[in-house]
Amino acid sequence: MSHSIRDIASALGAVAEGDLDLRISRASEPASAGPDALALAMDPRFAEGVAKGQARAALLWQGADWQAMGLKAAIFVPRSRLAMAGLSRMLDPGPSIAQGIHPLCAIDASAEIAPGAAIGPFVSIGPLARIGPGARIASHVSIGAEVRIGTDALILPGARIGAQVVIGDRFICQPGAVIGGDGFSFVTEEKSGIEEVRETLGSRGALRAQKWQRIHSLGAVTIGDDVEIGANSCVDRGTIRNTSIGSGTKLDDLVMVGHNVEVGEDCLFCSQVGIAGSSRIGNRVVLAGQVGVNDNIFVGDDVIAGGASKIFTNAPAGRVLLGYPAVKMENHIEMQKALRRLPRLAATVAAVQKAVSKISQSD
Questions:
Q1: Is 259 known to be catalytic?
Q2: pTM, whole model, 2 decimals?
Q3: Residue 198: inside a domain, yes or no?
Q4: Which of 3, 102, 259, 332 is flagged as catalytic?
Q5: Residue 126, in any domain of the structure
């Protein structure tokens, strides 16, 4: 499939110049671009690469001299990554899943599949499940009983969606994700070591052997519209009430959302984020890779946490956090500066102690 420069510029809301009827079929880095590719050179430092490639058209920064680069057409964008979102959406055909229901599916007779669905081989759909219009479900996906999925869902190979999960429109689920597995919740007959340590911040009583008893998950998972779940991520069902993820939230690969967690709208969780049970996350929260959130705490709206931060206590709205334990970013930076000065400070203290010792001995 190819697109004209005119159509691309229109879709991006951008200005274009040159041969607007020129057609391209793919995007490329400038130096490796062929005649059918749109070179992505949205910054002046990529101009040299345009000359090395064979592109006839390019996506350029505003004010670029496209004719001097030997191009026949150019599209000018003020915000490169935003332009990439629109361009990649145009050029991505999506997975190849044939329309209709593959004969190798196992779909319960009571399940409802709306028109326009494309369901690949070895898909299992349980009793009373409802799949919305335009769904695309790839091979080896399992959808449990009484699941509700909205319009235009895209569920990629090997995903698992447990019973009674409710999902909104335009849902995207990457391979291997598991939504609606049981929560990790266990208890001992008497107070466990974990409970003692929480209360005393480190002290323990007599050690005694105890066995863990399972607390079953009676809740499910509720997911809003325009949510994306990354590959091999997990969202556990609630114990009594549902675990919930708000509309517009995006989870990267290998993200763990524990039981009873409430996640707000338009959040962004990078790879290996872990959110422990019963925590509440506000709207537009950004958690960088490997951030951990303690159980039963609240993270306010618009919080941003840097990579590998560990949030142990409530975080107020708008706070920028970093470190282990997470503190204000500016405080963390000062603490690290002080930490780097410790060896020099220790040497200074040792020298002062030595000098004082000599004076004491001379007296």
A1: yes
A2: 0.90
A3: no
A4: 259
A5: no
